[in-house]
Write a structure and sequence with these properties.
Largest sheet: 7 strands, mixed
Number of strands: 33
Helix content: under 10%
Distance between the termini: 51 Å
CATH superfamily of the largest domain: Cupredoxins -  blue copper proteins
Strand content: 35-45%
Number of domains: 3
CATH architecture of the largest domain: Sandwich
Bound molecules: CU-O-CU linkage, copper (II) ion
Structural class: mainly beta
Low-confidence stretches: 1-20, 23-45, 211-216
């Protein structure tokens, strides 16, 4: 297939439209995501306004259901925050929750004190309190933000963050932001209730847990899967025109679900992984783990197409529509042959926008393990309360071997940095989250260039809360132990 996405480095994105739930880069709007394709113009390089994030209990509609949950500004997902490379984002948090909270800016190479990591970069903000998040966004890409306290991120406390590149080399007409989530809050109790039940259960046949299928395993049975806060029965609808080139930005904000994503009737050209550019690769489907993001380009055909995200190992799906013509929408259970087509693998990804890291001087192995209870997840044998600490020295490059000796897969995420995943032939993608399948080893190189004591953990929220949280720290350990919630 000929590559026609390149515009030769000129600014080609006048008239760029952001459609769907995030049309306006809304700062202070309230009410649930509408899912209407408003097509309001969002100037790519607009100066970001302050986006107030008011964390508060809310009732949201999910199809036929109404559930009590916690959101930012009453919206699900939280407001779209958009900026341009190098901008300063200001996002004052107002905590109207009954618990302390923080906001973490996932994937941003941020100044440490703005990282929203409770016990590491700040004390969590108490009920009634505020915290003024102000930070520069040095690298363009697709990111998101979420609460980093306890299981709060498995409520509605997350939202997209997109940093536009003023010198964007890709050429496209519109972009659609696709935020995926698994949902249980207000249906199976709260995420805290579910965590308590998981902690009390002793084997993997508990009714809370899902089946183990293929290489990717799933644990918690979430009753709903959402695209931009909408379940399949009232699907998010992206409208466009046939022949238009669209950039999809897919964000997996789920707690416990990897999604296999495909667009019926189309192949997808993947251009970014975790916000960083990769050599374009055309596939039918890709797997996106919790905390990962993929961007892909598509030239829209004429019709109404299902955008599906299969909840891997769970026999359920998130579902949205891409509409370029009138006509009947496909049913939510429609078969999408692309799901069984060519699937993206990490070895297909080659860095495009960032240089290779220097050769590492040393190698550290981090073993991902499970205690016999089945309820505790370890990094080199340690749990979050007395965390494994990967010590680095400022400026060094090191190789990290993630050796998964547990029967579950783990999307491992490092705060404050990107790392370069090792793939055959070299030149692997720069990412901040990487899936490690059961019994698999994944290697990455990382340069220690952002001092601080950073979280390094599994982005399965339940694994994180069951111990799989370490630190990536510069020099001698800080005087006091990180605190945990
Ligand atoms: Cu998105 Cu420490 O997490
Ligand atoms: Cu895990």
């Amino acid at each position: 297939m000929t590559q026609t996405w390149w515009s030769g480095g000129t600014i080609s994105r006048r008239g760029l439209l952001v459609t769907g739930a995030f049309a306006a880069g809304t700062a202070l709007t309230t009410g649930p995501a509408t899912g209407s394709a408003g097509g309001l113009a969002a100037p790519a390089a607009a100066r970001p306004r302050a986006t107030v994030l008011r964390a508060r209990p809310t009732t949201v509609g999910l199809g036929r259901r109404r559930v009590r949950t916690w959101t930012y500004n009453g919206e699900l997902p939280g407001p779209m925050i958009s900026a341009s490379t190098g901008d300063v984002i200001r996002a004052p948090l107002i905590n109207n929750l009954p618990e302390a909270t923080t906001v973490h800016w996932h994937g941003i190479q941020i100044a440490h004190r703005m990282d929203g990591a409770p016990g590491y970069s700040q004390e969590a903000t108490r009920p009634g309190g505020t915290f003024d998040y102000v930070f520069r966004v040095p690298i363009p890409g697709t990111y998101f933000y979420h609460s980093h306290v306890g299981t709060q991120a498995d409520r509605g406390l997350y939202g997209p963050l997109v940093v536009q590149d003023p010198r964007e080399p890709l050429s496209y007409d519109e972009e659609y932001v696709v935020v995926l989530d698994d949902w249980l809050d207000g249906i199976l109790g709260t995420p805290d209730d579910v965590l308590r039940r998981l902690n009390a259960s002793t084997d993997h046949d508990d009714t809370l847990r899902s089946d183990v299928l293929g290489g990717v395993t799933a644990e918690v049975r979430h009753p709903l899967y959402l695209v931009n806060g909408r379940p399949p029965e009232t699907p998010e609808t992206f409208t466009g025109r046939p022949g238009r080139r669209v950039r999809f930005r897919v964000i997996n904000a789920a707690a416990d679900t990897a999604f296999r994503v495909a667009l019926g009737g189309h192949r997808m050209t993947v251009t970014h992984a975790d916000g960083c550019g990769v050599q374009p690769v055309t596939v039918d489907t890709f797997l996106v783990g919790m905390g990962e993001r993929y961007d892909f380009l598509v030239r829209l055909k004429d019709g109404v197409f299902p955008l599906v995200a299969m909840a891997e190992g769970k026999r359920a799906r998130a579902f949205a529509l891409v509409r370029t013509a009138r006509g009947r929408a496909p049913r939510q259970d429609i078969r999408v042959p692309q799901l069984d087509g060519r699937r993206l693998a990490y070895r297909d990804l080659k860095a495009r926008t960032r240089p290779d890291l220097p050769r590492p001087e040393r190698t550290v192995t981090v073993t991902l393990g499970m205690r016999p209870s089945g309820n505790e997840w370890t990094m080199n044998g340690k749990l979050a309360g007395d965390p494994y600490r990967l010590r680095v020295e400022r400026g060094e490059t090191l190789r990290v071997v993630l050796d998964n000796q547990s029967p579950m897969w783990h999307p491992m995420h490092l705060h404050g940095h990107t790392f370069q995943v090792r793939v055959p032939g070299g030149g692997g993608p720069h990412k901040d989250t990487v899936n490690v399948k059961p019994r698999e080893r994944v290697e990455f190189d990382v340069q220690a260039a952002n001092p601080g004591e950073w979280m390094f953990h599994c982005h399965n929220l339940y694994h994180q809360e069951q111990g799989m949280m370490g630190t990536f720290g510069y020099g001698r350990p800080p005087g006091r132990r990180p605190m945990h919630h």
